[in-house]
Amino acid sequence: MITNTVDDIRVRELLNPLAIHIDDVEILMAYYDYVDEEHIFLRKFNLDSKTWEERNQLTDNSSNKLYLDLIDHNNKLHLVYCQYEGGNLQVKYERYQYEKDLFRKECEEEISNLESPQDPTLIYFDGKLWITWIERDAVLSRFSEDGGDSWSPIYLWKDSKRHNIVRYKYLSNPKDNNTLLNYSFGKFSTDLSFVGFGPLKNTEVIPLKKKNLLKLPKDLPRIKI
C-alpha cells in the first residue's frame, strides 16, 4: 500500500468532510482548511504524471461552513455546502468554470432558507441540476434547468415525512453524462426508491423567505465619546 500526504490542514471544530471526483485523467479533491478563516480548497491529482498539483481556494466568504458535495459536468464544477449565519444554517451553491487548471467562479446562490438544513447533495439527472437536503425530518430540493444560473422554488417531498429516510452512496457511471451524483436520499426499505429529484409528484412548494434588513432611522443624534 502506498500513502501520500496530500495537504496539511487545520479544522475549526468539526470533522473535515471530503468530496472527490474521479475521471479518466484526474482526481479532484475538495476539502476544508482553516487559514485565518474557514475556506474550501480543491486539489487535483494528475493520473498521467502521478502528481498532486497546487491547491486552489474556491470560497471567498468568511462564514463558518459545514458539509460539502461537488460534481463536475462539462467543465463546470458545481459546489454545495452550508454556511452559518445568525446561529442558523443556509445551503449555498457555487459554480466554477474549470479549464486548463484554472478555476473561475461564475455564479453563486443562496439555495435554502435560514433554518437547519443538513447534508446538501448535488444531483445531475435528465438535464436538470438538483440540490437536495434534509430539513426538519423532510427532504427538500430545488432544481436548475440552465446549469445553475436560475433556480426553481423549494419543493418539499411529502413521502419523506412518512418514511425513514437515509442517505445512500451512489457510484456513478463515468460514461453516463446524463446522471451524475455521489449520494442520494431514499426510503429505508427493501423497496429502494430515491427521494428529492425527478418528477414533482406529491410535493409542495415552500416559500423562500427574504432576509430581514435592519433599517436605521434617519437623523440619528450624534454621540460624543
In total, how many beta strands?
17
Largest sheet, in brief, is:
6 strands, antiparallel
CA radius of gyration is 19 Å
User: What percentage of amino acids are in beta strands?
Assistant: over 45%
Into how many domains do the coordinates divide?
1
Oligomer: single chain
What sequence of helices (H) and strands (E) makes up the elements?
Answer: EEEEEEEEEEEEEEEEE
Record the strand order, biggest sheet: 15-10-11-12-13-17
Instruction: Give the mean pLDDT.
Output: 88
What helical percentage do the residues reach?
Answer: under 10%
The coarse silhouette is: globular
Structural class: mainly beta
Separation of termini? 66 Å
Low-confidence stretches: 213-218, 220-225
Q: What is the count of helical runs?
A: 0
Structure commentary:
The chain is mostly beta strands. The protein has one domain (18-206). The chain is 0% helix and 50% strand. The strands form four sheets. A six-stranded antiparallel sheet has the order 15-10-11-12-13-17, with no helix packed on it. Strands 1, 2, 3, 4 and 5 form a five-stranded antiparallel sheet that branches. The protein has a four-stranded antiparallel sheet with strand order 6-7-8-9, with no helix packed on it. A hairpin with a 2-residue loop joins strand 7 and strand 8 (88-99). The termini are far apart. Residues 213-218 and 220-225 have low confidence and may be disordered.
Give the SSE map.
Blueprint: E1 18-22, E2 26-35, E3 37-46, E4 51-52, E5 56-57, E6 65-73, E7 76-85, E8 88-99, E9 102-110, E10 118-125, E11 128-135, E12 138-144, E13 154-157, E14 165-169, E15 179-181, E16 183-187, E17 203-206
Antiparallel strand pairs: 1-2, 2-3, 3-4, 3-5, 6-7, 7-8, 8-9, 10-11, 10-15, 11-12, 12-13, 13-17, 14-16
